[in-house]
Amino acid sequence: MCLAIPGEVVELDPARPEVAKVEVSGVRRMINVSLLGQSPPVTGDWVLIHVGFAMSKIDEAEAKAVLALLDGIGQSYQDELAAIRESGME
């Protein structure tokens, strides 16, 4: 089973159009957006992220619903977010 997590695009680098900085529940990471093809993201877009790649764009309402569901999972999701924060990767 694969899980894609919604993230909001918060920063773009014109020198590297294949990457974007996204925020997921307060954690910011650089991800690859090249799989979005002809529909590159803009700041404020929401994308589904799987293993560091944006798989598709989604609307904000859907993103927030999924994040609420994940938050409802409880401690397992919080532990995963903590591990990502502690990794220091950005």
UniProtKB/TrEMBL annotation:
Q: InterPro entries annotated for this entry?
A: Hydrogenase_HupF/HypC
UniProt cross-references to NCBIfam families, sorted A to Z: hypC_hupF
Family statement drawn from the similarity comment of this UniProt entry: Belongs to the HupF/HypC family.
Q: What is this protein called?
A: HypC/HybG/HupF family hydrogenase formation chaperone
Which SUPFAM superfamilies did the record assign?
Answer: HupF/HypC-like (SSF159127)
